[in-house]
Task: inverse folding
């Protein structure tokens, strides 16, 4: 029997929380609803779900969801995190992605679209669990472990999110080949604007440079996209 995926939703609007929970449970997920940062902090210290959905503003804390996102990413490099909020300003989107969110959605999204994005995040994260033997490939000092969605640079693990992993693999598989932002979206199975892809790439560069300050393998091709330089 297939184990139910466990989703935790942190949302302080009671009616919205009930709606999200009902829709997700109807599609076979096990759902825990939390309505405050304090509840979430306590819960996540005890155990992590298979996916976390976070609102940003909780109670009288306008940025509580950002703090939760940061803390969760520190606890796990691979936990899928989805921010679902009414705040859709570009600065908020960029902030959420930089803190480690894999996806960022506005609350005006339709329920079928939300369910599709949740399923997409699970499809990507499940790939590492369905492989029986470790597979890896190398490109210079880069090692890509495809069974557990990890990347190493000079034998040090780069703490990438699931989305970032697929983007690095997409680029590094074919050095010198330009990947457009649309192609990176398709390879990472996300549907965002071009600015969000740019934010992801910037964050990926920073993570590699934290290990190797001289890292410069991701080249921006202006007006086209990005390529991996050997």
Result:
């Amino acid at each position: 029997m297939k184990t139910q995926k466990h989703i935790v939703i942190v949302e302080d609007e009671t009616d919205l929380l009930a709606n999200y929970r009902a829709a997700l449970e109807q599609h076979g997920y096990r759902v825990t609803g939390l309505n405050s940062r304090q509840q979430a902090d306590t819960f996540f210290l005890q155990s992590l779900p298979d996916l976390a959905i976070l609102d940003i503003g909780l109670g009288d804390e306008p940025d509580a969801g950002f703090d939760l996102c940061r803390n969760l990413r520190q606890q796990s490099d691979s936990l899928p995190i989805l921010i679902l909020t009414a705040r859709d300003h570009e600065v908020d989107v960029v902030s959420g992605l930089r803190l480690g969110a894999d996806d960022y959605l506005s609350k005006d999204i339709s329920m079928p679209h939300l369910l599709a994005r949740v399923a997409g995040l699970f499809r990507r994260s499940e790939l590492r669990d369905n492989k029986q033997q470790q597979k890896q490939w190398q490109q210079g000092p880069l090692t890509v472990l495809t069974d557990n969605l990890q990347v190493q640079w000079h034998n040090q693990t780069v703490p990438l999110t699931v989305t970032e992993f697929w983007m690095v693999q997409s680029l590094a598989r074919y050095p010198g080949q330009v990947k457009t932002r649309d192609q990176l979206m398709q390879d990472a199975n996300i549907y965002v604007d071009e600015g969000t892809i740019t934010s992801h790439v910037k964050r990926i560069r920073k993570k590699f440079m934290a290990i190797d300050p001289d890292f410069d393998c991701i080249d921006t091709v202006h007006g086209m996209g990005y390529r991996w330089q050997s």
